[in-house]
What we know:
The structure holds two protein chains of two kinds.
Chain A (H helix, E strand, L loop, with lengths): L1 H27 L7 H17 L4 E6 L10 H10 L4 E5 L4 H8 L10 E4 L9 H12 L4 E5 L11 H10 L2 E8 L25 E6 L3 E5 L6 E7 L2 E6 L8 H10 L2 H9 L10 H29 L1 H9 L4 H38 L1 E4 L2 E4 H4 L3 H31 L12
Parallel strand pairs in A: 1-2, 1-3, 3-4, 4-9
Antiparallel strand pairs in A: 5-6, 7-8, 8-9, 10-11
Helix pairs in contact in A: 1-9, 1-11, 1-13, 3-7, 5-6, 9-13, 11-13
Chain B lengths: L12 E14 L2 E14 L3 E5 L6 H8 L7 E6 L2 E2 L5 H11 E4 L11 H12 L3 H14 L15 H12 L6 E5 L7 H18 L2 E6 L10 E6 L2 E7 L31
Parallel strand pairs in B: 3-8, 3-9, 6-7, 7-8
Antiparallel strand pairs in B: 1-2, 1-4, 4-5, 9-10
Amino acid sequence: MITISGIILAIAFLMSIWTGSSITNALQAVPDDGSKLYGAVQAALREEAIVRSRVEITVAVLGVEAPDQAISPYTVVRDSLMGEQEFSVVVMPAQADAFEARMHPAAEEGKPAALVVTAVPPELANRRFVGLVDTFVRQEQGTLLVIGLESLWPAAGEEAARDAFLGLLPATPTSQTVTSASVTSAEHPAVTDVQWQAMPEAPFVAAQPGEGAEALASADGQGIIWLQRRGDGTVFWCPAAGPLTSQAPLLGWMGEVGLLGEMLRWGARHAFAGGTSAKRDLWLVSLSLLVCIVGITNAMLMSVTERFREIGTMKCLGALDKFVVRLFLIESSLMGAAGSLMGVALGFGLSFVRALFSYHVTYSGESYWLALRLFPGGRILTWAVAALVIGVVLSVVAAIYPAYRAARMQPVEAMRREA
Amino acid sequence: MASETAAQSDGQTVVRTKDVEKVYTMGKVKVPALKGITLNVLSGQYVSIMGPSGSGKSTLFNMIGGLDKPTSGYVYIDEVDVAQLDAYELAWLRCRKIGYIFQTFNLIPVMSALENVTLPMTFAGMTTDEARDKGMALLAKVGLDERYNHKPFELSGGQQQRVAIARAMANSPSIILADEPTGNLDLATGKEIITLLGEMNRNEGVTIITATHDIKMLSASDFIIWIRDGRLAKIERREDLHIEVGSIGGDAEGGVEASLRGEGDEGA
């Protein structure tokens, strides 16, 4: 019984790791088709990742502190991000070289996962800046959030650079005003959860949406946000018609409804893709299985020693050595099978229940039990069979030495007087 | 040596030893257990090996039964030198030619009586149906056919030993070796077992060789081989036995059997 309980626990451990990673992989495999399901999956993975892996998103905020204003977009952005647990805010240096070093694709240390541009310091308003921002957007992941446009660029400056930068953005602003009717609210997973209502009348900036751009209108008519995917990153752009002061309320509102954080997380969603520390876990499992093998060998040896009379008698009845070996190996394999079966059930059950609750999310009004919905039945069945096979094989291997000790017993042992 | 002819023998030697010696080496000390024993057992005889503890009785028994090899000398079972046999041949010998009965019964605890009896038949390659029929017949002969599906712990000591006897007869061996068969049994049950063994000897013609302390066995045996200090002391025939035992103020129930001399009870 003791040996079986050892196998049960070790195989349960193995199976729970495999079940957990199978379910997580199934969630990660949901295609990015902008559907609600995908959004729900991302939300669930994010919650899980924040809780368990303590993901950190480095956000580089590029802007200018306006000393003569109470609130500047830069301050608003910085302060609202500070309050969120997974963001670490980095103030981008004004020097071109330092900026470049930070933004370089090869830079590992402190590489930002999101870039918020509220103003471009004059020293950086050049081709290099634009080139680097473009590179940033085209890399594997990241969100570029650009607040305002007119105020970004001084009237005088490098025209070519300015045009190139405009080319990154999804829309070309004009000076007309538009009504909300002409603004469509898109279902974008990054911002779906926010309560959007178009205001009937608002001083919006008219814009020519570029290809693949979606528009979102704010709830209180503060502004329009356009978003466009570039590479695998995302560009959010908030145009503003007026001076710097009109951007601050928009940003404040974005921060209040959580839109700001949502946008930035969206670009870094790969960091939330989950995944367990599989290597370390498998190492633990291997060790526990090894201990199990030792335990099985020990218990089987004890059993052989206790059954000396039985084995001796069998040999007197004509049993060959290999019969005795086979007897003990089959016995051990049956015990291994029983224990593995129970271990698989236990491991799967526990892990599945845990995944069921940790991957349960309420997204845009609906409740999703993602572990059920995306259940990777095929993979888990494969893992279950593998765990069963491993358990049986290990039991047999562990019983080899005791079986041969039993086979070498002499029949005269059956006559021994003492126990 | 006394003359070999006995009432039921057909003259064929079933077990023969020649100058068998056995020396046990424990570290640097050599302990001679058998110091040269030569004897013949003919087919159909009922032979008891008797002797005090440490006399080499068990060692000789093991030699005859093919469970051990002598240090020097020869043991022939059916004129085959046991020391020359390999593991397969020895297993075959134990399966087909010899049946063993032990003091501690040695039934497999997880198997029923019928399964215990048919186990050697499985080793001999008999089919399940044949084995079952023969097993039931054997159990009927020892009087346990109603308890065929009882496990050993559900049977009394005497019943277990009867199952063991049935098991020993499973493959119709020519020799049955019984090592202290009545050692763990009380008086009445012991008598039953001895009677049963005698029946097997007479009805089936099996050669029975026992090693025992039990005096009750003497009345059933054709020959008694006395071993003392590793050597043959004497071989007696039943007719020549001279036993006197008394009882202390009791009757035949509580006391020991009276003398075999034929002079009637001599209870003190």
